[in-house]
Amino acid sequence: LSSEDKRGSSMKLYGPSYSPFTARVRALLAWKGIAYEQELPPGGGPKSEEYLRINPIGKVPALVDGGLVLP
Q: Tell me, what DSSP letter sits at residue 48?
């Protein structure tokens, strides 16, 4: 899924589609009408160094909006 919201910016949701936790966030974003892009955690998984820079907790999902990260 990919689109931009009314502000012209796009949120990124990091997490696999099959994750029930990611599905909850997707459902909430859809219900609120918030546009987002979904991606798998970079670097091969939630414990990779690349993903740990995004979400130091090392869990999915993580929602990124500009400089704000919600783990």
A: S
State the pTM of this model: 0.83
Per-residue CA distances from 28 to 9, 33, 52, 60 (Å): 18, 8, 24, 16
pLDDT for res 3: 47
Ramachandran quadrant class, 51 (left: phi over 0; alpha: psi -120 to 50; beta: rest) = alpha
Cα–Cα dist 19/15, whole Å: 7
How far apart CA 22 and CA 37 sit, in angstroms, is: 12
Give residue-wise pLDDT tens across range 10-26.
Answer: 899 999 999 999 999 99
**Residue 59 DSSP one-character state:** -
Q: What is the signed CA dihedral for 30, 33, 37, 38, rounded to 10 degrees?
A: -10
